Amino acid sequence: MAANRNSTTYARSELLSAEENNIIREMYTTKQEVLACSVAQLFQAAPNPRVWTKKNTGVICVIKDHNQRSYFIHLVNIDTHSVIHAEEFYLEMEYKTPFPYFHTFAGEKCMVGLNFCHDGEAQLFLDAVNGIVIRNRKRKEKKDAQNRPPPMASMPPPAPNNSITQPDGDAGKKDKK
C-alpha cells in the first residue's frame, strides 16, 4: 500500500465514511495527490454517440501524478480498492457542465459524462478541473508563442537600391551570328 499522507495532501469526500476516505488516501503514493473526490456515476456516449450509457458508479477523483508529470481523472471502486476507469488530461481538454451535477468531456474513446451525487462536491471537482484546464491552456499559449516566428514588422526591410536579379535562362547560350 501507499505511504501515509496528511490531510493537506488529499481531498476527502463528505459522502464517504472515514474508512472509505482512508481507502482512497492509501491507494495513492506520496508522489500522487488527490485534488478532488466525490461519489459519481460514469456515463459514456458509446456505442451510440447520441445516448448516454451508464458504465460504473464509484468515487471519482482528480489526481496529480508527479511521477508521470500529468493529471488524471480516476473512477475508483471502493470495494476492490482499484481504479476502474482512467482518463488523462490533455492540453486542449474542454470540460463542460450542462448541469451543476452533470459534467462532460471528450475522453480517449468517446464522450464521458459524470453524474455527481452532491452539487457541492461537483463544484469542488469542477474547481479542481478548471484549475488544471486553465494551467494547460496557459502552458499551450506560452509554448505556441515561443514557436511562433517573429512578426514581419520586426524584420528589417531590404537595403535600398538592392535589386533581386533572376537568373538569365539564355546566359549559357552563345550568340550565333
Give a short synopsis of this structure.
With about 180 residues, this protein is of the alpha+beta class. Helix content is about 20%, strand content about 30%. A seven-stranded antiparallel beta sheet has the order 4-3-2-1-7-6-5.
Provide structural commentary.
- The protein is built from two helices and seven strands.
- It has 177 residues and is α+β, with helices and mostly antiparallel strands.
- It has a seven-stranded antiparallel β-sheet.
- Strand 2 (53-65) and strand 3 (70-77) form a beta hairpin.
- The longest helix is centred in the C-terminal third of the chain and has 29 residues, at 119-147.
- Residues 1-8 have low confidence and may be disordered.
Keywords:
single chain, alpha+beta, 22% helix, 177 residues, disordered N terminus, seven-stranded antiparallel sheet, 2 helices, elongated, 7 strands
Topology diagram in text:
Layout: H1 18-27, E1 32-44, E2 53-65, E3 70-77, E4 82-88, E5 95-99, E6 102-106, E7 111-116, H2 119-147
Main beta-sheet annotation: 7 strands, antiparallel
Categorize the overall geometry: elongated
> Which whole number gives the mean pLDDT?
86
Helix content: 10-25%
Please trace the helix and strand order, writing H or E for each element.
HEEEEEEEH
Radius of gyration: 27 Å
Total helix count? Answer: 2
Are there runs of 5+ residues with pLDDT below 50, and where?
1-8
Number of separate strands: 7
Strand order within the widest beta sheet? 4-3-2-1-7-6-5
Structural class: alpha+beta
The portion of residues forming beta strands comes to: 25-35%
Our measurement of the CA-to-CA distance between the termini, rounded to an integer number of angstroms, reads 96 Å
